[in-house]
Design brief:
Largest interface: A-B, 30 and 24 residues
Number of domains of chain B: 2
Order of helices and strands of chain B: HHHHEHEHEHEHEH
CATH superfamily of the largest domain in chain B: Cobalamin-binding domain
Structural class of chain A: alpha/beta
Shape of chain B: elongated
Distance between the termini of chain B: 37 Å
Radius of gyration of chain A: 23 Å
Oligomer: heterodimer
CATH topology of the largest domain in chain B: Rossmann fold
Strand order of the largest sheet of chain A: 6-19-18-16-14-11-10-9
CATH architecture of the largest domain in chain B: 3-Layer(aba) Sandwich
Structural class of chain B: alpha/beta
Number of strands of chain B: 5
Strand content of chain B: 5-15%
Shape of chain A: globular
Largest sheet of chain B: 5 strands, parallel
Number of helices of chain B: 9
Helix content of chain B: 55-70%
Number of strands of chain A: 21
Distance between the termini of chain A: 48 Å
């Protein structure tokens, strides 16, 4: 398949050179002193008074080439492991929303660990999703267990790879320890680390923070899977041109990538981003705007130039309900991403610019994800697929309906949607004119009414609860009411 | 030039969002013997009022509002010393301590708020980013603040806003300040649930809200 490309080869090269120029002449502010030390030791110019790091082009070129071409997400069950780009596009839930739309009352409220357990169960069962990035925070977290109260219910109820972040090193150590208990020890965990860490250490424009940088550095040293996302926002943290925003984001990607390679050569990374253009009428954040898709497509092209996998937060929406806006913002943007060859789509389940998870939206996004994956498969050109023998056998005026050739391919050639309505109008009226949201919620209720086979052994659970007393229950439950 | 013509020029310069034009008009007015306080009250503030209305009506966009505010701020660097000399300083609307919560380095929204506070007659003390709860409380005490305004963009460090309010309660000083929260990670419901005195979706609304809270 040939990917959609907005830039010519020469333009890609110029964008790369422009990014090198930014890193060399403008530089990056690094607030975490040990990170500045890493940069200094590997040939960057560091001003400790201001925190400014400048990157000679040769240094960037040397280290960015050490980044391997793939990144693997691991789940509790290895059959759900996914490596990009080869297994792409892989679909990931949107993450860390403080709120949830209550699946029974429909009212938005603070999310809890019980919601995370249910969401984990749902994502485990929805075939369009590959990775569960923990969708919400847990407002009921006991003191000192902010992150445990998210990772525990997530891992307990989902065999697919689980991804998230932590706000500080204490939480990160706890979470890794949780993973080690699940794996049956530190050694087993080092073999198969099933927690996939993600951070945003780059704060646009061109700044590295303290807490996330420290976490990325530690995880990279440990050889544990961690990748980062850059988040330029045109008009606020990057120039009001898509090209200027591409350059700022690309320079930030290069800075954090060479940082990880300097810490440990050959560390797998992803060129992940959440590029946006702010709505200049008010300054409003607009992750659902079409410009996000255009920028992510350009970044996919840059990532191919660098030989690394790419993707990011795409298909988010500013909408507050499962309306047409929610659908077109998710659909148009993710389709642009896959057409351009992005193989990581952080897209599922959130309303209101990452503020609230909605069960119905997650089920709709599952269907959009299946369509995106189908689009990515393309036409599957082959001599066999030209079906010349079949065309000859049916002949002019015949029908393909009753043919074995059709029967053998009818479940794989096209996506068979569970939600998209293909009834005649009269049938839909007789069914009570169900909206897409109502159909999606029916599906969520159906899934959550099933027992969850993903839950681990009682012995594993006992070991976890002994190590972390007072931990939340973390059990998925049917939606009632 | 008649005073009224000076006022028109000052007002128009702000509406044009042109810093050079504003400074020229200010200097011309001062040279003609118009007092600094009068330059502000009769010239610049009427211009800012028009800018505010235009912004609310979406006739102008946020970058234009910002430029008008920055031009006003530039004029104030000339006018403030003169006001002190004249002894005509008016009542300030209130004193605000603002910053972004611990663990969060996002500053742009907070900086816009600071600028709008200053152009609206508030005394604003900006603690910057990654601010721990003690810094908020100590600074508020030091400057006898009316308002503590706390910004948060990251959802994972959002609880820092609640921590400030809880610490104020523990110290028995909750009633001494109005606490406003805002930023991309916040909602009205969150503000209510942590017992904040107010929440606003935009910097512009935050200043309007602050004005009503202190009056």
């Amino acid at each position: 398949m040939r990917f959609t490309e907005f830039l010519t080869e020469a333009e890609v090269r110029r964008t790369h050179e422009a990014s090198l120029e930014v890193l060399e002449t403008v530089g990056v502010l690094a607030h975490f002193a040990p990170a500045r030390e890493v940069f200094r030791r590997h040939g960057c110019t560091v001003d400790d008074e201001t925190g400014l790091v400048r990157f000679p082009a040769a240094v960037v070129e040397r280290y960015r080439k050490m980044a391997p071409p793939s990144f693997t997400f691991r789940g509790r069950d290895p059959q759900f492991d996914r490596t990009i780009p080869d297994d792409g596009p892989i679909v990931v839930t949107g993450s860390s929303a403080p709120n949830v739309v209550d699946p029974v009352t429909g009212v938005e409220r603070r999310a809890t660990s019980a919601d995370i357990a249910n969401i984990a169960h749902l994502i485990n069962e929805l075939p369009g999703f590959d990775v569960f990035s923990i969708s919400t925070l847990a407002d009921d977290a006991p003191a000192g267990q902010f992150s445990l109260s998210r990772f525990y219910p997530a891992l307990k109820n989902c065999l697919k790879p689980v991804r998230s972040n932590t706000p500080n090193m204490d939480d990160l150590h706890q979470v890794v320890e949780l993973g080690q208990i699940i794996a049956g020890g530190a050694e087993a965990y080092a073999e198969r680390p099933i927690i996939n860490h993600h951070y945003c250490p780059m704060v646009s424009p061109l700044t590295m923070d303290v807490d996330s940088t420290e976490a990325v550095m530690w995880l990279t040293e440990q050889g544990l899977p961690v990748y980062t996302t850059v988040v330029p926002n045109a008009g606020l943290t990057s120039p009001m041109t898509l090209m200027g925003t591409l350059v700022v984001g690309n320079a930030e990607f290069l800075a954090i990538t060479v940082f990880q390679q300097m810490v440990k050569e050959g560390t797998p990374i992803i060129y992940a981003s959440l590029p946006t253009v702010a709505d200049m009428r008010t300054g409003a954040y607009a992750p659902g705007a079409i410009e996000t898709g255009v920028l992510l497509a350009a970044q996919a092209q840059m990532a191919r130039f660098y030989g690394v996998p790419s993707g990011g937060y795409i298909g988010l929406t500013n909408a507050h309900s499962n309306d047409a806006q929610a659908g077109f913002e998710t659909g148009m943007n993710t389709l642009l991403g896959v057409a351009a060859g992005a193989t990581l789509l952080n897209m599922g389940g959130l309303f209101s610019s990452l503020m609230a998870f909605d069960f119905g939206k997650a089920v709709v996004d599952n269907e959009i994800a299946l369509m995106d994956k189908r689009a990515y498969r393309g036409l599957e050109f082959s001599e066999e697929n030209l079906a010349l023998e079949e065309i000859a056998a049916v002949g002019p005026g015949g029908s393909y309906m009753g043919r074995n050739h059709t029967k053998a391919r009818m479940k794989t050639t096209a996506v068979l949607p569970r939600l998209a309505n293909r009834d005649m109008r009269a049938q839909w009226e007789e069914a009570g004119k169900p909206s897409i949201h109502e159909r999606a919620m029916d599906e969520a209720r159906r899934i959550l009414a099933q027992p969850n086979g993903a839950v681990w052994d009682a012995a594993v659970d006992a070991a976890i609860r002994e190590r972390f007393p007072g931990l939340v229950a973390g059990d998925a439950k049917p939606l009632e009411g | 030039m008649a005073d009224a013509d000076h006022f028109d020029k000052l007002k128009q310069a702000i509406i044009d969002q042109d810093e050079d034009e504003v400074l020229e008009a200010v200097n011309a007015a001062l040279a003609d013997g118009i007092g600094a306080k009068t330059v502000i009250d009769q010239g610049l503030l009427p211009g800012l009022n028009v800018i505010g209305e235009q912004f609310e009506d979406e006739e102008i966009f946020l970058p234009e509002l910002m430029q008008a505010a920055l031009a006003f701020q530039a004029a104030m660097t000339i006018l403030e010393p003169k006001i002190k000399e004249e002894g005509t300083a008016g009542e300030k609307k209130g004193v605000v301590v603002l910053g972004t919560v611990k663990g969060d380095l996002h500053s742009i929204g907070k900086n816009i708020l600071k600028l709008l506070y200053e152009t609206s007659g508030f005394e604003a003390h900006d603690l910057g980013i990654d601010v721990d709860l003690f810094s908020f409380i100590n600074k508020a005490k030091e400057v006898d603040a009316d308002i503590i305004a706390i910004s948060a963009l990251l959802t994972t460090t959002l609880v820092g806003q609640r921590d400030v309010i809880d610490a104020l309660k523990d110290a028995g000083e909750r009633d001494r300040y109005k606490v406003l929260v805002g930023g991309g990670a916040t909602t009205r419901e969150w503000a209510e649930s942590i017992g904040a005195d107010g929440w606003a979706a935009t910097a512009y609304e935050a200043v309007t809200l602050s004005t009503s809270l202190v009056s």
